[in-house]
Amino acid sequence: MAKLALLGTSLVRRPVPVQLASTFYKNCLDAAPYYAAKWLDEELQDIGGWPLISNNQEETTTVNVENGDSESSDSEDLVKASVNWTDSYVKARTEWNGNWIIGMSVIINPKYRTKYILKIDLPEYSSIWDTLKESDNTTDIINTKVEDYKASIRGWVEKMGRKRGQLNNQLIDEVVAFEKELAKAYSAALMDKSEDKYMSLGELIETSPERKIPWEFVLREIFGTVNITLSKTEPILLSHQSYYKRLDEILSTTSNKVITTYIGWKFVSQYGGHLNDLPVDEVNREKYCLQATFKYYSHALKRLYVEKYFDSTSRNRVATIVKTIKTYLINNLQTISMADKDREMKNRIKRKLEKIEGLVGYDDWIAKKDKVEEYYSDIPDYSDRKYLGSIIDVITGQTYKELRRLRQKFTKPIPNPDVPGILSVDSFFDQENLKLGKSNDFFLFNFTF
């Protein structure tokens, strides 16, 4: 319980990220399952409400500003919301990190490793898709799984205080049928062996001539959230082209209401589960919440631990030991004779040794002034938020960090193009850094070439 006590200490003079971590931990402890449904319903009002989704020209839903109830009234307390599925997708991608329907990410350009590029790829995979793909070959087992899936949608509707009739069986069938088509398109695209294609945003727009996927609007809206302006000359890497050709066909035969309802359902199923996992008893709840806090605020808590338990004398002594070992290894390397063909290997080893971090137990940058604050700078102060809201705020902050990578500059090539996703720390230290691991009686060196 020492770590729990550490997290609960006075944070008046602590860095802001640690304050956020403390609030997150408290929100987790206080979370109540009954709140989840209400919060999910409120969050979905931004995309027109769910399951009574408003849409474009086909139909309109009036949403009560006070309580989210749908009514037919001209009262000043009511607003008219006409939300297209693309608006819903933009919110899902920027605030919920929902790569649903369209897969979009910022990656290191495989061709020019000093730059990032926007990649259009397959959407996020769902485990139910294997079942949905086989649902045409009806068997009792498959039919049961599909019916259970539909029942889970109805179950969340009821949890959120909606009457079952408001999301009728026909709409459920249409949403599941839409997801089945996505599953089939995804599976077929995996067999597509065509190479990724470099193109401009303007050329990408032309790949959807009937404008079923308004690429220009979607991408500009997404990157506009982090003040990045995309022109039609913006380079794009398009992967699995067959999926997007098929997606155009699917969208052309699917109503806006079904698509937006599907996006809402993906949000509910993904984030509503956080409340289902919360333990009831106090001890297990504390352990669960501590693990959740470390998941989202690992660097902030490392910083707190270092400040509390790593005194300056100990840090300096460790740094001296590391420096001595580092110097010895570099000098010893110089005495080793190698054939000309092996000199490059020798130089690579030397570069690795020179990049040995000076500290043991945590990354150097964590102790540097303002670096942790910078890392979590996109996360708002959610002191008035509940547990699920806290999670969404963290996810939104991480997503903004990922989107900003598109304009990040590098002074040298990145050695490993397969860097981690949203929470990559390559902004702060090189991926080639060699870390020392402390064993019981000796130091362990992990060389990776």
UniProtKB/TrEMBL annotation:
| All residue ranges annotated as the Peptidase M13 N-terminal domain in the record | 17-362
Protein name as annotated: Peptidase M13 N-terminal domain-containing protein
Query: Which PROSITE patterns does this entry report, sorted A to Z?
Result: NEPRILYSIN
Taxonomic classification, please?
A: Eukaryota, Metazoa, Ecdysozoa, Arthropoda, Chelicerata
Q: Which Gene3D superfamilies match?
A: Collagenase (Catalytic Domain), Neutral endopeptidase , domain2
- Example GO BP: protein processing
Q: Which family does it belong to?
A: Belongs to the peptidase M13 family.
Cross-referenced Pfam families: Peptidase_M13_N (PF05649)
An example Gene Ontology cellular component term from the record? plasma membrane
Q: Which GO terms describe its molecular function?
A: metalloendopeptidase activity
